[in-house]
Amino acid sequence: MQESVMKAWWDSSHMAGANAAYVEALYEAYLDDPQSVTDSWRSIFDALPKVDGVELESNHSQIREQFKKLAALGPLARCSTGKSSDTSNQSDEKQVKVLQLINAYRFRGHQHANLDPLGLWQQERVRDLELSHHSLSETDFDTVFNVGSYAIGKETMPLGELFKSLNRTYCSSLGAEYMHITDTEQKRWLQQRIESVEARPEVDRDTKINILKGLVAADGMEKYLGSKFPGAKRFSLEGGDALIPMLKGLITEAGTQGTKEVVVGMAHRGRLNVLVNVLGKNPSVLFDEFGGKHDESLGAGDVKYHAGYSSDFATPGGNVHLALAFNPSHLEIVNPVVMGSVRARLDRRENDEGKVLPVTIHGDSAIAGQGVVQETFNMSQTRGFAVGGTVRIVINNQVGFTTSKIQDTRSTQYCTDIAKMVQAPILHVNSDDPEAVLFVTKLALDFRNKFKRDVVIDLVCYRRHGHNESDEPNATQPVMYQKIKKHPVPREIYADQLIAEGVLGEQDVNKLMEDYRAAMDHGACVVEEWRPMTEHSVDWHPFLGHDWDTPYDGSISLETLKHLGERLVTYPEDHKLQSRVNKVYTDRKAMLAGDRKLDWGMAELLAYASIVKEGTSIRFSGQDSGRGTFFHRHAVLHNQTDSSAYMPLQHISEDQAPIEIYDSVLSEEAVMAFEYGYATAEPECLTIWEAQFGDFANGAQVVFDQFLSSGEAKWGRLCGLTVLLPHGYEGQGPEHSSARLERFLQLCADHNWQVCVPSTPAQVFNMIRRQVIRPMRKPLIVMSPKSLLRHPMAVSSLEELSEGVFHNVIGEIDELTAKDVKRVVMCSGKVYYDLLDQRRKNEQTDVAIIRLEQLYPFPQEECAKIVAEYSHVKDWVWCQEEPQNQGAWYCSQHHFWQVIPDGAKLTYAGRPASASPAVGYLSVHNQQQKNLVEDALTIK
User: Fold this and answer.
1) Cα–Cα distance for residue pair 15/23, rounded to 1 Å
2) Integer-rounded Cα radius of gyration of the chain
C-alpha cells in the first residue's frame, strides 16, 4: 500500500477493532456510491485489493483481513484533527447511518407507499424505514448530513428535511423497486430520475386537462355502455380508469421520441374502452356489435372484447401506427404474439428498436399465474427474440375472478415479482393519482428506450363491478365492494383536485362530460388524435383471394440447383468441422457430383438456398434447429477450434435475402406464439418453427387451438407459419413417437391450414418452396420424419427436385399390373417404406400401395385419378403406425370413403386403440409393427 495511504490509516483513530462494524458499514456505503464518503476514506477504499479486476466490488473477507492487519500495527489513539475520538467517531457513525437510511428507502420504501386506492392493503411494519433502526431520532433533525448519491440536487441536508424528502420520494403514490438490478448505470439512472423530482415533477396546465379528458372518456364510455346495454358483458375498466390517459400519454411521448409503430397486447379487462378511447374505434360500430349486428363476410367472428384494431395516432413527432392484437381468453398468451409481431416490424426497419414499441397489458392474477409470462420474460434478451424491451402494464384490480386472498393467487408479495428474473424495474403506482401515473409512464418509456430492456408498471386500482357486469362480487368480496361502492370514481377525484387548484371550474368539468356524452350519442370517433391509416407496415393484398389450386411455377433448373449446392458445401478453409459433420458434408459433395442420391437434409437446405436466392427471407427457430435434433441439418457449422459459427446459407449470393436460424429457449408455447406473431406481421418471409420432438408441441396447444387453426376464421388474420413436427414410430416410447396427427386433423375445417406428411427429399424440397411461391398464406403443419432422414430408400435425384411439384398423392411406384391387384393399401409417412420393403420381400404383385402426402385439404381429385386405375378392387385398407384412436383413421376416414370405388370395403390395419401414444418396450413395438404390416399386406 502506498505510503500516503498508510499514513492516512495511522492518522485515523477509527481503526480499532471495536469499530470493525462501523468501518464495514462505511465501506458498504462506498461500494454503493464512492462519492458518499469523505475524500480520505475514499482514497483508502480505492487502494484496497481488487478481485478479478473489478473496480468497486471486492472480496469482503480480504478486506476484513486487511483491516485487521492494519489495526494490529499499533495503537491509533489520536486523530489528526485533535478532536476527541469519541466525538468524531459518533459523528461519523451517524453519517454512515444516514447513508444506510437512504439506501433503506431505496430498497424498501415501496413497502410503505400509498398504493392502494381503497386503503385495504395491510402493510407490514418495515423497521428499516424507521429512524430508530439506524440509531437516529428526531433530535437529529436539525443536524446537517452529507446525502451521498441521493439525487435531490444538494450535497447536504438536515436530517428532518431529508427524512421528509425520502418519504415523499419513495412512500407516496409511487413505490419504486429497482435495487434488485445489478447494473449500476441503470440503478443510478432511475435514482436520478425519481429522486431529483421527489417522484412528483411539475405538471403543466395543458397536461392536467388532457389527463382529466382521459378520465372523463374512460368513465363516460363505461357509464354510457352500462345505461345503453344494461347487464351486457363488457369487462369494464372502471376503477382502472387511469389506463386511458396513461396509454395516450405513452403513445404521445413515444411518437415524440421517434416511434412509428406501437403494438399492444391485452386481455379483455378494459379492452373496449381502449378500442374506443385510444385507438379510435367508432362507437357506433361497437354499439352494433352489442346489438348483435355483424358483417356476414367476416367468417365465424369472435366476441367484441377479444377483437383487435389498427389506426393511426397523431403525435408531435408524427403519426404513430397503433395495432391492438387479437386475443382469446387465454389471457397472457398474447404477450409472445406481440413480441413476434414487433420483431417482424423491427426487421423491416433494420432493427431500429426506437421505431417500434411493444406494450403488454396484464391482469394481476394472470401475470403471476400463467407460465407463458415467465417464458416471455426469459426470451426478452435472447438473440433471436429480443425486441428492445417492452413496457408492461399490470391492471392490478386486486382480485382474480373471485379470488382476492394473496395466499391463494401467488407466493410472492407482489404480482410483479416475476419481472425480477430479468431485473426489470417495477414501478408500483396508485391509479387514483393520475399525475403519478403519467410520471411513471414516461419514466418507463425512457428507461426502455435507453436500456432496451423490459420495464413494469403496476397500476394498483380496483374493479368496480364483478368479473363481468352480470356477476355479484359481494358474494365473495363483501368488505372490498362495500368500500368500492362508497369510493368516488377517479374522474371525480381528479376533477375536484383541479378545481381546488384553480386549473378548471366546475362548469368546465361538466362541459367536458357533456361533450363526451354528446360524441357518444353521435356515434363518431371520440379520439382527437385519431387519423386515417397511412402507416401500414406491410401489404397483404397480393395474398388475398387465392385458392389452394391457384397455379404456380416452382420449377428450378438443374444448373441452378447444382450452383446452390456448391454454395451450401462451401465454408472457410480454417473452419474445422467435427468429424461426423465433416462426413455429412463430404456426402453432400458426392450428392452434387451425382455419386449419391440426395438425402433429406441436403434437399431441405437446397430449398432454403433457392428461396433466399429468389429474394424471400427465412426465419427459422426451434430448440435444435441449427444442427437438427436428429443430426441431419447442420445448417450452422461450429468451428472445433474456437466455437465460431458459419452458416453457408448466408453466403449463397451477394444479393440474396436474409436467413436466420435460431436455437431457441427451451419453450414451446411462448416461442411458437412468437413465431405466429411474426408470421402474421410478415407475409414476405418464410417463418418456420420446429419442435424438438413432435409431441413437444403439446406445450403449445393453446397456440394451435386459439391462434393458428382459427385465427383466420375468427379475426381474418392470415398467417403462413410453417410448423415442423418430427413424427414416426421408432420404438422410442410414448413421448418421442407421435406428433399427435389426430389433433391437427381434428382442427381442420374451412381450409384453415395444410397438414402434410412428405415421404421423400424431393417432396420436402417442393413442399417448402410451394409454401413461399404459391400466392397465398396459410399455416403448414408438417409431420416431419426421424428415421427417414437417413433411410436408404428415402432418397431423391436432383431431377426430381427440379420438377417443382409437390405431389399431394403418390401412386404405385413398382411395375404392377393393375388388373392383377386385389387389394389397395393407403398410408402416409414412414410406414410406407415398411410396407414396400415387406411386399418386395414377399414378392407380392396383387397389393398396390398409395401414399397420401397431404391429408388436408384432402386432395380428392388427385386421389380419384390414381384410384381410378383400381376401380375393380373391392378390398381397400388404411394402414397407419399410430393406435386406432389416433393418427388419421378416425379424422380422415370420411375422405377415404369418398374416393374408393362404389361397393368397396375399407378396413383398418394398425395398432389397436390405446390411451398412450406408443408402447414403452422395444420388443413390443417391433412385434406391433410387424403385425400391422402383415395385416395390411395379407389378403383375406
Assistant:
1) 8
2) 34
Amino acid at 591: M
Q: Measured between alpha carbons, how far is residue 843 from residues 188, 824, 835 in Å?
A: 80, 16, 12
Would you tell me how many other CB atoms lie within 10 Å of the CB of residue 162? 22
Q: How far apart are CA 66 and CA 79, in angstroms?
A: 20
Is residue 876 pLDDT above 80, yes or no? yes
How many angstroms separate the Cα of 52 from the Cα of each of 49, 55, 311?
A: 10, 9, 53
Do 205-528 and 811-937 agree at the fold level?
Answer: yes
Q: Are 797 and 594 in contact (CB under 8 A)?
A: no
Q: C-alpha cell of 923?
A: 420388443
Helices (H), 297-379: 334-348, 364-369, 371-379
Q: Would you tell me which CATH number, out of the four given (3.40.50.10800, 1.20.120.140, 3.40.50.11610, 3.40.50.720), belongs to the domain 811-937?
A: 3.40.50.11610
* Three-point CA angle 184, 126, 147, nearest 5°: 45
| DSSP structure string for 508-522 | HHHHHHHHHHHHHHH
> Which tens digit of pLDDT belongs to each residue from 733-779?
998 999 999 999 999 999 999 999 999 999 999 999 999 999 999 99
Provide the CATH topology of domain 558-802.
Answer: Rossmann fold (3.40.50)
The DSSP bridge pattern shows strands 391-396 and 455-460 to be parallel
pLDDT given at position 50: 58
- Structural domain spans, the chain: 1-82, 205-528, 558-802, 811-937
Q: What is the C-alpha separation between 741 and 755, in angstroms, rounded?
A: 9
DSSP tag of 788: G
CA distance 274 to 305: 10
Under CATH, which number does the domain 205-528 receive? Answer: 3.40.50.970
Q: Find out whether 459 and 222 touch, Cβ atoms under 8 Å.
A: no
Contact 177, 206 (CB under 8 A): no
Task: Please report, for residues 343, 549, 622, 727, 851, the alpha-carbon distance to residue 662 in angstroms, rounded to integers and kept in the order given.
Answer: 14, 33, 7, 21, 33
Tell me the pLDDT band of 74, cut-offs 50, 70 and 90: very low
pTM: 0.90
- pLDDT tens per residue, range 817-862: 999 999 999 999 999 999 999 999 999 999 999 999 999 999 999 9
Count of residues in the chain: 940
DSSP state for residue 706 in the 8-state scheme: I
> For 200, phi and psi rounded to 5 degrees?
-155, 85
Q: Please identify which residue in the block is written with the cell numbers 388419421.
A: 888
**Cross-strand partners of 849:** 825
Cell numbers of 372, please? 407463458
Cβ neighbours of residue 8 closer than 8 Å, sequence gap 6 or more: 40, 43, 44
Exposure string (b/e) for 130-160, b if CB count within 10 Å is 16 or more?
ebeebebeeebeeeebbbbbbbbeeeebebe
Rounded CA separation 715/301 (Å) = 6
Q: Which of 356, 341, 273 is nearest to 307 (CA)?
A: 273
437 vs 431: CA distance, rounded Å: 6
Tell me how far apart the alpha carbons of residues 487 and 872 are, in angstroms, rounded to a whole number. Answer: 81
Phi-psi label, residue 327: left if phi above 0, alpha if psi -120 to 50, beta otherwise: beta
**Bridge partners of 189?**
none
Q: What is the dihedral of CA 29, 32, 34, 40, to 10 degrees?
A: 20
